[in-house]
């Protein structure tokens, strides 16, 4: 038998609650409109289980230890969610020009050990995914995140990340792909000029890794000690030095067009030493 009285009361309670919620929403939208507009975009990534890093080691053929490549670390939806965070209005003021690219630093600059700043949701979610996947030190989620944006044909000159990032760096690639070169610690590198790179005496990288969108690159140990760089180029030529060609779905001789933009997110655990 239907209890009309309690049905009636439930309906009345529902109406009162709906009215209260509408009033609260209006109140918030008038008083905090700017704050809400500037609120960071939420970013949900699915939970990760630890990866078996040995399954993703790619440098052995070229004698480079500590180089790992994980294809499809993010799904396409997750990539889109992270990119929404990178390009959210509240992050717009964080872009700083740096060489041919522009960068956002989160969690303070790499050299500022004392700056404690909460990471925005996209960076926190990705940092957690990287740490849950077990690709950074155990129990130590990254606390510094650098976002790089390259517009074709921009690259980054060969460099070593120095002590501050030691002992390992994880990089997630978004939107466009690129070939990263690992060069000897010292010595010349023909990183910018393709003509130069074709000279018979041109120095050659120790290894190359083709970075597909949504992949994760991890370098530590020997690979950390090398310099790394991305050529200024609109097309990446896959050579026998490319250690992950098969898993990245490219083959020697391929000329892979760069996308218009590549975004990379670099994760570091800064420690007071
Ligand atoms: O964009 C990349 O994958 C490399 C970035 C890099 O080497 C750096 O930020 O130190
Ligand atoms: Fe670097």
Automatic annotation (TrEMBL):
Keyword flag Iron: yes
GO molecular function: dioxygenase activity; metal ion binding
Domain Fe2OG dioxygenase: start-end pairs: 141-272
Subcellular location: Nucleus
Record has Transcription regulation as a keyword: no
Pfam families in UniProt: 2OG-FeII_Oxy_2
Keywords assigned by UniProt, alphabetized: Dioxygenase, Iron, Metal-binding, Nucleus, Oxidoreductase
Record-linked InterPro entries: AlkB-like (IPR027450), AlkB-like_sf (IPR037151), ALKBH6 (IPR032862), Oxoglu/Fe-dep_dioxygenase_dom (IPR005123)
Cellular compartments per GO CC: nucleus
Family: Belongs to the alkB family.
Protein name: Predicted protein
Organism: Micromonas pusilla (strain CCMP1545)
